[in-house]
User: What shape does this take?
Amino acid sequence: MVNIPVKFKRVAEAFDDMARDGRQRLCESSGSEHSASNESLPDLSDLVNSFLERGHDEVFNVDYDKEEDSEEDNAIDSKISESGVEEDLMSLFNNEDGDYVKVKIHAEVEKAYLELGGIGLSPMDSKRRLMALLRERGLDAGLCKSKWDKRGNCPPGVYEYIDVIVEGTRYIIDVSLASEFEIARQTDHYTSLLQLFPTVFVSEVKRLKKIIRLMCNSIRKAMKKGGIHVPPWRRLAYMQAKWLGPYRRTINEVPKALQATYSDFNTTTSIGFVASPLEISGYCREDFARRNGARKVGYLAVAFATSPMQL
Assistant: This one.
């Protein structure tokens, strides 16, 4: 006994899978692959120390720091006062080097960010839309997606941010950067550091690298005071991988027409064959033979039987 609806349903499901894959490719975009820039690579001393401490045969684009504090780390901690960390962060956030290109980018990002304020978008869509608005303003902006595998104690992860390239210089753009450094049981000092972060962050890669290192060192000290271990997702290796590791850059925005179509799409919609009209119980050769006096009726008759046409 042949069950026709099941066969057609399987075909319909196959088309649905193909359609979902197509939508995913449209939304993600192929983009272009980029390795970590020279500015984001770890210092030679970091690489040598990491190699000697672990005995690994590989050296990666980001630092995979050891779990425990070293004597060198403790020495650094003793030399850097809490006020000194605040001063260093303020200096890194301020435009003391007179980079007017960065000032212009920051102004454009703030304007675009305010435009998105009243639009209910997901974090991923808001970053893509922000990138598109910056391109409309004449900036070479791109949506960057970093993705890394598990390495040692560093868990795998994925992160998205925006960059703008001006005459070969790459500026990293992130909104609400402070939230990426939030931790449990924050000390008063650590909370004061997070309050220094601007809502809209624009920085060159080398400056961001210094900020990450300062904040990860402060995280370690703050959590040590609280008597808890630093989680893997707040260690230097993981934090560096977000912005300083290899990434895929795309400049495509999903068309608004497709966005509307996809938002209205639900799981009951089928692409290709529609299975539901064919789910008619008992429509097979044997049943037709009984109902039509031993008359043999094939698949074509079954198809016509579901339409208003008369045989």
About this structure: The chain has a mean pLDDT of 72. The longest helix spans residues 4-28.
